[in-house]
Amino acid sequence: MSSKQVIFNLEKLDDNIVDQGLDILEIEGKRSVRKNFEEEGRPFKWKKKKRDDGRRILRGKTNRLFNTINSQKDRSSKSVKISSNLPYSKIHQEGGTITRKPGTVKLRKTKSGAYRFAKKTNTRAKEVESKGGVIVIPKREFMNVPLQDSTRILNKLKKIKLL
Q1: Computed from CA positions of residues 128, 102, 53, 62, in that sequence, does the dihedral angle turn out positive or negative?
Q2: Is 105 helix (H, G, I), strand (E, B) or coil?
Q3: How far is Cα 74 from Cα 20, in angstroms, rounded to an integer?
Q4: Co-location of 107 and 32 in the same domain
Q5: For 119-153, what is each residue's pLDDT tens digit?
Q6: Strand partners, 104
Q7: Phi-psi region of 73 (alpha: psi -120 to 50; beta: other; left: phi over 0)
Q8: Together in a domain, 145 and 129
Q9: How far is CA 17 from CA 8, 22, 33, 45, in A?
Q10: C-alpha span between 7 and 18 (Å, rounded)
Q11: Domain tally for the chain?
């Protein structure tokens, strides 16, 4: 059954069943996106990190991208939107390049002795020349619902007589 047929069927049904259907789409959609993080890419594995630091891909120290996956139901348009509001979520989803211009940057020293970027207002940070460069972010689609999940979701919708 195509998505157009699902939308057509949604328009014909009463509000209670539509609410149940939207709830299923919201819950199962978020579950599918979270499973993409757990398996580090579905149906295709994500490209490995350059440096293996023991952390999972797209998780980092804080799990921030994973934790900001949210959903919004819109009863009037009978739709569910699953998204992340972080500014860098789009480049991880679609891939791309970041071009840094040459110039000066401030670096501070951490407790472990490593250097990190510092704010301009940090008085103890060193100012150093930066050559600039290009950073390539590989495409790691985490906001997709694979076919195996789509069939599971459609089966749940059939149970409530939505399809």
Answers
A1: positive
A2: strand
A3: 13
A4: no
A5: 999 999 999 998 989 999 999 888 888 888 888 88
A6: 129
A7: beta
A8: no
A9: 14, 9, 24, 36
A10: 11
A11: 2
